[in-house]
Amino acid sequence: MVTRTLRLVLAGVWIGLIVGLGFIETPLKFLAPGVDLPIALGIGRLVLTAADIAGAVLLIAITVVSLLRPRLSRAGLITLGALWLVLIVQVAIIRPLLNARTDLILAGGDPGDSVLHVLYIAADLLLLAGLVVYVAFAARRPAGAD
Q1: Residue 108 lies in a domain
Q2: pLDDT < 70: residue spans in the chain
Q3: DSSP string computed for the chain
Q4: I need a labelling partner for 82 at 20 to 30 A (CA). Which of 14, 25, 60, 125 fits?
């Protein structure tokens, strides 16, 4: 019972983090009065880096709890693996490329159009979908549990 609750709470916190920071805070900072592009990009870099770190910590905690008894189902563990894959791609590939673009813009350059922000948003959407699927598996009552 405790492990199932922990699985749900940890996943729920991560869902809230992605929605709150990725889909609410990020776009709104560009609309705030008095916030120019360099400031918004600087804030965005800090916030997204903190969100990436928090997501990694939550995923580690979710993984540990998922391996405790009663163990998560095979499908749940596969979903967990998919979450790891998406987070690694987002943090190790997409974020460094976005940081390089930000550096160029802050130095006064124009990097031109890019699909990197779309890829980052797509990764966030995949993480959200994966977390919802994970929650569905984690919420199931394990076989033989009272």
Answers
A1: yes
A2: 141-146
A3: -HHHHHHHHHHHHHHHHIIIIIIIIHHHHTTSTT--HHHHHHHHHHHHHHHHHHHHHHHHHHHHHHTSSSPPPHHHHHHHHHHHHHHHHIIIIIHHHHHHHHHHHHTT------SHHHHHHHHHHHHHHHHHHHHHHHHSPPTT--
A4: 25
**Residue 91 is part of which domain span?**
2-139
31 within domain boundaries: yes
> Which pair of structure tokens corresponds to residue 94?
């997409």
Q: How many domains does the chain have?
A: 1
Q: Is residue 144 assigned to a domain?
A: no
pTM: 0.90
Buried b (16+ CB within 10 A) or exposed e, 121-144: eebbebbbebbebbbebbeeeeee
Provide the residue type at 37 as one letter. L
